[in-house]
Amino acid sequence: MAIPMPSRQLFIDGEWREPILKNRIPIVNPATQDVIGDIPGATKEDVEVAVNAARRAFSRNKGKDWAKAPGALRAKYLRAIAAKVTERKSHLATLESLDSGKPLDETLWDMEDVAGCFEFYADLAEGLDAKQKAPVSLPMESFKSYVLKQPLGVVGLITPWNYPLLMAVWKVAPSLAAGCTAVLKPSELASVTCLELADICREVGLPPGVLNVLTGYGSEAGAPLASHPNVDKIAFTGSFATGSKVMTAAAQLVKPVSMELGGKSPLIVFDDVDLDKAAEWALFGCFWTNGQICSATSRLLVHENIASEFMEKLVKWSKNIKVSDPFEEGCRLGPVVSEGQYEKILKFISTAKSEGATILHGGSRPEHLKKGFFIEPTIITDVTTSMQIWREEVFGPVLCVKTFSSEDEAIELANDSHYGLGAAVISNDAERCDRISQDFEAGIVWINCSQPCFTQAPWGGVKRSGFGRELGEWGLDNYLSVKQVTLYTSNDPWGWYKPPC
């Protein structure tokens, strides 16, 4: 699609700034493999400037301009940003599809969610003032106590490429609503719409330095941001390996972090279900977002009584998925984001085959697509629990399948993972679904579906999927510190020490 990519600089202190080392990073369209533009490449020198800008914005006018301003003022800016996102929805979605390879229908949906997220946190920002000085019940009448919730300060936000703008906004919106100032470092693989968000912030007059956007490589921009002594918190979404490095850097300064580190989520299908409905959810749970979703239910557990028929259904449904350029009408699976990701996924599939698994469907490039990082929707059977494909996150359109014979076995297989982000069960037995949702070792559970996500509900995992919660009121709490204030109300002296003569 011949739409020019905007040529942007870094967004620091409310204005566009060329990187100090003048680095640029090429933008590759994953559907064509063509270079279609470039983005600025920030380094530690730019991080220093951006963090200082955020610090000034936080403390400007003793905090009265932002951090200590009424929540209604911050809400006004968040709503203005939401309105501009809605106004630019089509253009933003187009840029994101070009940049990331996601089907246009998905990116249009994502932009609606971006605007909705800003609106939601605008409401919470307005309500924050009324919740200040919440009283604490004490056992002694001579004391009164209350709680203040205050912004943490300057926050570093490091975000992934699978939902380039939406995942960024999951952090930007609540952090700004809380009164923090922020430095956003999106993934270098898909940053274009985050720079457009910066342009929207400039257009609506967001105070300089409140949001700064640095595009660049993780080692050159993300790492110095995570370790910067004037950054008060890091919120990170990405791989376990990178998250571990971010935590290590933050730990040197005992800096708080919140982490969403992906997963290898299970989906259990019992033998009392509508097979077609269950098949569609099983595929959607793994192939949505081109299979590049942290919560993908990529470990499918099927009751042995229906396994053979269910596999046939899965293959038929998979063959009906339109794999194409993201802009073709009806596209439901586009290319993966980069050549590196493409090669990594094919290596996972090759290793599974060499370990004895069966590639039931897919497993390679679609025959009709000669260019681009396309991989067919892939279903792998005859999998053992020791295989790499069962244990490690693929982050691509690859579904692996095992059978089970009892509820206890299904739960044991589902929880046998280092990860614990999402988990799903499909069954017509409501009591069974309730039992299993309590037994799942996961931060998110879906019943008779997979992957729905709402701004109002908490999002996050357990085990190696990270800690902390985004979205909902929990997302706002991520960026607030709780201060206890206690006052002595009696006119009597304390009387602990004997008074001097």
Automatic annotation (TrEMBL):
Q: Which InterPro entries match?
A: Ald_DH/histidinol_DH (IPR016161), Ald_DH_C (IPR016163), Ald_DH_CS_CYS (IPR016160), Ald_DH_CS_GLU (IPR029510), Ald_DH_N (IPR016162), Aldehyde_DH_dom (IPR015590)
| Active site, UniProt feature | 260
Does the keyword Transferase belong to this entry? no
Q: Which Gene Ontology BP annotations are present?
A: cellular detoxification of aldehyde; glycine betaine biosynthetic process from choline
Q: Which domain of life is it from?
A: Eukaryota
Q: Which residues form the Aldehyde dehydrogenase domain?
A: 23-485
* Keyword check for Plastid: no
What keywords is this UniProt entry annotated with? NAD, Oxidoreductase, Sodium
Q: What does the sequence similarity comment in the record state about its family?
A: Belongs to the aldehyde dehydrogenase family.
Q: What is this protein called?
A: aminobutyraldehyde dehydrogenase
Organism from which the protein derives: Raphanus sativus
